[in-house]
Amino acid sequence: MIPVPRGRGGWETRTNGTLRLAALILVCAAFAASGCSSSVKKTPGLGTGAGAGAGLGESNLGNKGSLAQFKKGELGAGEGGPLHDIHFAFNQYTIEPQDDSVLKANAQWLEAHPNTNVQIEGHCDERGSEEYNIALGAKRAQSAKDYLVTLGIAPSRISTISYGKELPLCTEHTEECWARNRRDHFVVSQ
Amino acid sequence: MGLAKLCAIRGRLAPDLVAAASNGKVMMRRSSLLLLLAAFVTVTAAPFTARAQIKMQIIGPGSHLSPIAVSALKNLGGDDQHGVSSEFDSILSHDLELSGYFRLISPKAFIEDAQTSGYDLGQFNFADWRSINADFLVKGAVKVQGDQVQLTALLFDVAQQRRMMGKSFTGQVSEVPRMARRFADALLKATTGIEGPFDSKLAFVSTRGGRFKEIYLQSIDGHGLFRLTDNPTINLFPAFDRQGEVLYLSYKTMMPALYLANPATRREVRIVSRRGKMVGGAISPDGQLIVAAIEHSGATNLYLLDRSGQELRRLTNTNGINVNPAFSSDGRMLAFTSDRSGTPQVYVMSIAGGGARRVTYKGNYNTTPAFSPDGKFIAYESRDGGHFDVWIVGVDGSDPINLTHGVGSNQYPAWSPDGRYIAFSSTRNGNSHIYLLQVATQTVISALTEGNGDDSCPAWSWWLGD
User: Mean per-residue pLDDT for B69-97?
Assistant: First the structure.
């Protein structure tokens, strides 16, 4: 590893060995013009750069995902995209009967637009521990993915991510608000 | 946070708990586990028998707060404005108050002038301190030359007119707060038999900088706030090894990954896995092993990695959820949360392999386990009737006890290195902040964080060492 001089407040981030080569290629591709020669990345204030993360088999969702919207302060402002959310009971990840038609409509849209991919985001309400909720959100996203696959959508078009309880649509401590936050959100990319 | 405010918070927090704590009989009836804890304190104090016999009557879990006077340090040169003395006394006093064992006597009541009297045995009059009802007295002296400080502090038993303990420190002016914390820890050892926990760090997640959850470090007494992350995404689950490195989860690249950060060198390693997405992680006390919760196809399982992120072994294999890994202090055992029974419950297993053993049976939502440093207990959060509370249970599953009693949402327990305290997050006063709990008396002593934003996911470091 070649030490990189650090500016004031700068941190040096290196990706672990199992993916060092992949990260090296990615980082080099991203910073080819600046003559990158190692996997060491200098980042302002502990890594705001997205270079190393964008290429880990995930589609580029641009500014449409919930985290990107949250960064802009626009989470939940306006209904995003052609696909609709589904909702879950507390601490559950099984598809509710009333969401059957929503998932079928989402599948029909994806079938009609074969050049698109979808990322399914799993979300939870504010109750419970953060880490358990990230795992629960992953279960919720996977439930929808599995269902879309049974409806004929190619698994290669579907990725999943969980944000646990970190990106709520509303912040009141009421059952109505919690029910809104326990959701799968579908983000379409080209 | 000033002492007056500290007292106010204490009064507001849980007067019923304070009352319960001052009545040993009530506390003893509540649980045999507390008897165990009390016994632990007594046994550990045994090497100090000569003085412990007296002191355990005066100060011990369940008894009254012991009055202590912290006198100004005598200026032996260079501290003419008493800046070093004030800083030392202020942090020492704050830590002693946080310990839950002492009541600080107001300096306004002091009779003696620290600058005109001596500071060691035979150089001052114990009657000046007995008359204001001090059980214990801290005196000392300081010499400042440029940036260099020489500081001596002594602890006296006023009734016995005896010197109990003394410490000398040399260092830079900027190190005076640590001198105060190390003296507070030594003072607790001299009076209770167990080293205090204040020469350590608290890490926590906070939204104080805006909408985003970032990770901060500070001393237990609230000084030296250090912002570890600065990325407008999501940062969670700070955890310390004994070297002070911090493992945490971040979405800073828009995808979740673990990061092992060294605040001293400002270098970190980003840890991802071909297995799937990182959900959380724990680092062993020696910093050599990581247990990562990794999600693939909806199932989250635990994997043992080395500190560079290389996978060594799979630890769980279910189609459900296995999260919240937490090492025991000897690095041999792992506690975690699993939904394999149908509801989230706490389990323990050996790092070396073998089966997992269920620890919690009471309640249907038990998560976020943490081993006590002696390995005998597990603290966790439990949902009961809509409330989240911090509980402890014997590592064999015996005697679960609710430590927070349904005031607000109480979550994410983190043990102090001495095992006498738990830091946890609570919404008891509105916004979520980190609070300090004395385990043996079930007393919530004080908030450790304050201000705007929500604070969560506390981690308590090991002792910082030399």
Answer: 97
